[in-house]
Structures are given as C-alpha cells and as structure tokens.
Amino acid sequence: MKRDSTVYTAILFILQSSTNVDLLHNLSSLLDLVLDVDEELLVAWAMPDFVQGLHEAIKQTGEEKELTVDSYLHCLQLLSTTENGVQALVECTGVLFPRLTAHVARVCGEDVIAVGGRERSLASAMSVLNVLFSSAGEEALVLLEKNSYCVECVMQLFEVIQEDRRTSMTLAAAGASQKSTPVSTPHSTRHRTEEKSESDVNGTGRRTCAEGSPRTDTSQSQETEASGSEDHGKSQDTVPVVRNLMEVHMLYSVTVEFLADIVKALPKGESQVAGYLNGCTRDQIESMVLALQDHTDDTLIPHLEEVLSGSEDKYPRLAAAIGMDAS
C-alpha cells in the first residue's frame, strides 16, 4: 500500500465519490486499522485531499451510521498526531469545523444526552476541533463566532461527561473492592460433608455409595472449583467497567483541554465567546471552573479573572463561579 500509488488513488476515489454505504463502512474499518498501526503510511497519506475525502465520506454516510462515522473521525484524529496531518487538517478548517461541531451538536440535541458507546467518536471530534481552534491563531475566536453553538454544545456535553466519569469511577471502585474480598466456602455444604455417620465409612476409611462401592469424595473439590469460577467471573465483570472508565476519562481529558484553550484565547473585556460561556447554566459553568482549577496550567483561572475584571456585571455567572463580585 505504501509503494503502490494506485491504492491511494483508488481509496481517494471511493472516499470522494462513492454513495455505497456498505463500501464506505468497510473502507472505514480498513483505514481505521491500517492508519492506527502503520505510522509511515499515516504520514504518507497526511494530505489535504485525503482529509477532504474523509470529510466527504462522513457527509455521505450520514450520522445514522455511527460506527462508520466513528472510524472516519478516528482517522482524522490519527492524522492530527503528525505534523503533516495537522497542516492538512488546518487547510480544511472551513469544512471540517462546521462538520465536527454538527456531530457534537447532534448528540446534544437528543432529549437525553448520552455519551455511552460514543466516547471514542466524541473524543476524536473534540480533539480535532481543538487542533483546528488552536492552530487558527488570531482567527480562533472567529471560528467559534461563526459556529456559535459550538461552545454551548461542548459545555452541555462536558456536564454529562463529568457525571458519567463520577459514575464510572464509583463502579470501578466497587468492582475492585469485590475482587479483593475473599470468597468463603459455603458452611452448609462443608457441614453436610463432615457430618456423615460412621456407617457411611467402611473399614478402609473411604466414604461409600449406597451400594457400598468405594468412591473418591469430590464435594470439596467441587466447592473449590465453584469458588474459583465465582472469583474468575467477578474478575471478568470488572473488565468492561475499567474499560468504560478509561474511555470516559479520555473523553473528559480531551474536552477539558478544549475548554482550557478556549479560556486562554479569551481577550480582556467584552467578547462574543465570553458571552456564549456566560449564557450556559450555572451548573455547567461551575463544572468547567472546577476542572480548570484542577488543570496543570495554573494560569487559567487568573487569566479568566483578568478577562472578567471590570466586566463582572456583563458576565455575572462566570464572575460568580470564580468568586468575583458581580454587583
């Protein structure tokens, strides 16, 4: 694939022009796999026409085919891990930013916002959005102004992500506690074995069946096997819980970084983006502020204070969340 240019040409043609949903789905799985394991191929294909092809494939597939879209979004995220890939993505900002924002907005537009099973696709979309935003320089805030619902959607989603993260951590902790608790042998079974009458034991000391033929007592070994199976089952039960926690934490981290970069880009005084943030609910704003306070960049909250200084009355929710007097 790396040496044969006709392969790339054929893949590009399918991405840009195919209307066969099954073909696009199969291709998405293939690209997701090979780009994830072959860095040389990833770098070689990190070009604007390939990014445009991925965008067209997402557009053609439609949001209903979530697994297909998930794979193509992950391909975009993989491209963002290379220097050439970032450049290619940035060249396509005009079509990608609205498309990725629409993907996030679709999830937020549901009656009940659910991120379960969508962690990877949302993390991929959020990661690429942040790459495009961070690479836009002075035009970064303009991107958010042109896609005004982006900030609102990210804030709505973040509130749900935080709640899912807390739930996943609680379940993982409960699973670890159960795994560490020894499983005792059922007393009733052991007592039934030990309380056999002397008439059940022949002269050789072996327990006998009703017909008197000697046999080996297997009750204890069965208990041990059952106990071991129970422990193994509990161990297996914790695997999906831990995996879910990792996926939620990944999405949480990516979203926090995007919010942190948005805050860092805010200018002092009035701005539309600050207004978008202030227009969110108090709970959403407080969730964001708590996450920023725990961020490794300890300049975020002081910068936000500087941004709001003198404008507390215009952004009262933001000001209140960081302890500034809006009166």
Low-confidence stretches are 181-219
What characteristic shape results from the CA principal axes?
globular
Helix content: over 70%
What percent strand? under 5%
Report the count of strand segments. 0
Contiguous helical run count: 16
Averaged pLDDT, please?
83
C-alpha-based Rg, rounded: 29 Å
Biggest sheet statistics: none
Structural class of the helix and strand makeup? Answer: mainly alpha
Termini separation (Å)? 65 Å
H-E order: HHHHHHHHHHHHHHHH
Tell me what the structure shows:
This protein is mostly helical. It has 16 helices and no strands. The protein has helices spanning 5-17, 21-37, 39-44, 48-61, 66-79, 83-91, 93-108, 119-134, 140-146, 149-180, 187-194, 219-265, 272-278, 282-293, 300-308, 316-321. Helix 1 (5-17) packs parallel to helix 4 (48-61) and helix 10 packs antiparallel against helix 12. It is globular and about 65 Å long.
